[in-house]
Amino acid sequence: MGKYSKKIIYKGELALELKDCLKHFIQLELKAAKFYEEIAKNNKGEIAQVAKKFQKEETSHAQKLKELLTTAELVMDSTINKEVLLMSQYGIDVNLFGKELKVDTRKQLFTFALQAEKDSILMYQELVSQVPKNSKPYRLFSDLIKEERGHMFFILKQLHELS
């Protein structure tokens, strides 16, 4: 990977290279996909359909991150916000996907998904701010932000229709 292989995202007690960070985000996307897959299996009708849709989208995000992981364009020129890394490490992992959540209504599903989308947007915004513009990582993180925002607006519309 040449000159791009040893850039650090956060220097301090929690130090990650971009490669390690991408692996972490791939795992988060896959955990989200698995979560939605379980919701789809344990529900019927519209909840199952929406959960399957979210599951496919999260799997797609993981695949895009895996593809980036194989490129030589892995570069970070500065440090990532420690709070964002800690949120990704402990917030999503433990609080959202680390325990069983009972989803009986569309509102519960959309409320959970909304928080997950917001967290993803924050993390990808931090990553996009750390990579050179016009680089492959910049374009991918920017695209993921757009997709997550699209998901968020879809969810907000659904929540609005439920109220």
UniProtKB/TrEMBL annotation:
Signal sequence annotation: none
SUPFAM superfamilies assigned to the protein according to its UniProt record, in alphabetical order: Ferritin-like
InterPro entries: Ferritin-like (IPR012347), Ferritin-like_SF (IPR009078), Rr_diiron-bd_dom (IPR003251)
One term of GO molecular function: metal ion binding
Listed name of the protein: Ferritin family protein
The Rubrerythrin diiron-binding domain, residue ranges: 22-78
A family per Pfam: Rubrerythrin
